[in-house]
Write a structure and sequence with these properties.
Strand content: under 5%
Distance between the termini: 41 Å
Number of strands: 0
Largest sheet: none
Length: 196
């Protein structure tokens, strides 16, 4: 078991990733899909509330940061024209089903089922960004997703009460951040392998 203070290292690392993402938006290189980022803001904030009810301690800080970062991205995109990716009908469909899952998550009285629907909601919101990252990796900044995974690992390292409601969102965040980072980096990895 690691000391709880390790979580602050993860938060600091996460803030560095946010800085690079916002810097990429400012320069016009990074163009977030606002459907994904809106749900990514909403779902973790609700998840934090439910995890507190489940008895989670400081281990919820990475989940909070998973919502706070997208809040900054949404806020910044409102002030910077052309700082976001064009939304298509598939994005709206994913966003709609994500909101439905989020609604089920909010109204379900079973904490485990609620957390599961929060993960489903977040995952559905991630689909447009996963696809965009695979097809157009140059429109994303990988640092935010790498540090998001690292931050979530720090959160998992200090969990005292290993119940599904406490650990599941953190494990999901590690996996999803790693998947998006892979989608962004896959062309560079292929290029690197072909150069050998």
């Amino acid at each position: 078991m690691f000391p709880e203070q390790i979580i602050y290292i993860g938060v600091f690392i996460n803030l560095i990733g946010e800085f690079f993402y916002l810097k990429g938006m400012f320069s016009g290189n990074t163009k977030p899909n606002l459907i994904s980022w809106f749900i990514w803001m909403l779902a973790p904030f609700i998840g934090v509330f439910l995890q507190i009810k489940a008895g989670a301690g400081l281990s919820i800080l990475p989940v909070f940061m998973a919502g706070f970062g997208p809040f900054l991205v949404i806020a910044f995109s409102l002030f910077k024209k052309n700082a976001y990716w064009k939304i298509e009908s598939f994005d709206l469909l994913c966003g709609f089903f994500s909101l439905v899952a989020l609604l089920i998550y909010v109204v379900t009285y079973n904490l485990g089922i609620s957390i599961l629907f929060a993960i489903i909601s977040d995952g559905l919101a991630a689909i447009p960004t996963l696809i965009k990252s695979w097809k157009f990796p140059e429109t994303e900044t990988v640092a935010i997703f790498i540090v998001g995974a690292i931050n979530s690992v720090f959160g998992l390292l200090i969990i005292k009460n290993w119940t599904f409601s406490v650990y599941s969102f953190g494990i999901y965040l590690v996996l999803m951040n790693a998947a998006i980072a892979f989608c962004i980096l896959h062309k560079k990895m292929l290029y690197f392998n072909n150069e050998k």
